[in-house]
Each structure stands twice: as C-alpha cells, then as structure tokens.
Amino acid sequence: MGTVDLTRRADGVAVLTIEGAIDLTWAQALREHARALEADGDARVVLVTAGGRFFCPGGDLAWMAAQPDAEAALAELAGTLHEALVVLRGLAAPVVARVHGAAAGAGFSLVMGADVALAGASATFTMAYAGVGLSPDGGASWLLPRLVGRRRAAEIMLTDRRIGAEEAERIGLVTRTVADEELVAETEALVAKLAAGPTASYAAIKRLLDSSWGAGLEEQFDAEAASIAALAAGPTGQEGIAAFLAKRRPEFA
Q1: DSSP letters along 24-50, please?
Q2: Dihedral sign from CA coordinates of 213, 219, 223, 228
Q3: What is the Cα 108 distance to its own chain's centre?
Q4: What pLDDT, in 10s, does the model give residues 10-19?
Q5: Dist. CA 138–CA 80, nearest whole Å
Q6: What is the biggest distance separating any 2 CA atoms in the chain, rounded to whole angstroms?
Q7: What is the domain partition of the chain in residue ranges?
Q8: Mapping DSSP to helix (H, G, I), strand (E, B) and coil, where does residue 131 land?
Q9: How far apart, in whole angstroms, are the C-alpha atoms of residue 58 and residue 50?
Q10: What is the pTM (predicted TM-score) of this model?
Q11: Among 3.50.50.60, 3.90.226.10, 3.30.565.10, 3.40.50.300, what is the CATH number of 3-195?
C-alpha cells in the first residue's frame, strides 16, 4: 500500500514524501496534508519527493481491480486526488517536485502540476493510461498540452511511450535535469533559495500565471497592475525595495 507523509522543517520547507501506487487511502492522505498546509499557511516551500526507488507509478491497478463497483471507486479516487491537487496548486508557497526513477500516470501529473520540477538523469515519464484502457486524470489533459502543445500531448498520451529526462527537459515537462548523484543537492539549493524569498510575491506570480490562461491581454494588464500595487504597499515590496536601495540582502517575513 502506498503512503504520503508530511514533515515540516525549521527552514520553512514542508516535505511531502510519497511512496507506492495511488489508491484511495493514498489520495485521502495527500488531500489531508494539502489541506493542512493550506490551513496553516506557514510553509515557505513545499517539496514533493519520493521515498521509494521511483517517484510514483500512478494508480494502483490491483486496488482498482478489487473494487466491486469500478465506476464508483474510480470516481471517488479521481475526485479525492483532484481535490488534493487543487489545494496544492493554490498554495502561496512554491511547490517543487524532485523526481527520481519513474513517474507514470497521476504521478506524471503530480510532476506537471508543480511550479518547478527537477529530475535526475535516469528519471522517466509515461502517461500509462491508454495502455491499460483508461483515460488521464490528475489534470493531465489540462497540464500536458499547456506544457508541450496539443499535438505533442496527443502523441504522448495515445502512444504511452516512455520519455527520458533529457527529452522531458527539452520539451518543457520538467524545469531542469541534473545528474542523479546531484539531484538532492541541487534541489536543496533551490528550496533554500525559495524559502528565503518573498512568499507573497511568489503567491502573486502563481496567481497571475494561472489566471493568464483564461484572460485577455487587457484583463491581464489590470490584474498585474493591481497585484504589483498591492505588493508595493505591503511589507514584502517595501522590504525588497528598501533592501535594493540600501544595497543589502532583503529579509522577507
């Protein structure tokens, strides 16, 4: 049975450690932890990583096959997972995925939904739905075409082919690929930088990026103007500007 654990570090980094395939208990745990992060609001970065030899194999097919009502079970599983992913995407803190080994199915979706994704050189990515007669979940049909384009997304989903880390970086599935032995250190350097940064600015950046998909240019202009004005009037913008003018490192709350 898969597990999802949440630990909080003194540096403001919340670590979600996933392991194993996704069944209802796994999805419920992710939702519980995501809601806790939302309610507390004190995490400066959320790091999603895996405890096993791979990142995530996707849904637990044995669990699915054992359900007496497959339609009801899969609707509940997908619905629970989606509730968790909506909360994670809406967090003010940046979400960073550290990927080693295979990421398939909804595990692939979890990587795509992160704000930043670093992958080890041996990481692989597979949709893994069509091969077992299913269709995507985890937001894959929304996320993938926005990252790689509709035509390439269709090819990836229809063929179920395995994508290596180098190609994943080239086509925009992950932010950066690093040597396997450097993955932990590179990710730690990134989350340390983000944890020391302006969380309020990060939250605004995330909101603006997500709203841009459904907004016209003039509407986005208005959203940007309101956002930058609010930040400039608040403690985050005031500290950032004062630090720049004083030629010192900013200290963001």
Answers
A1: HHHHHHHHHHHHHHHHH---SEEEEEE
A2: positive
A3: 10
A4: 999 999 999 9
A5: 10
A6: 66
A7: 3-195, 199-245
A8: helix
A9: 13
A10: 0.95
A11: 3.90.226.10
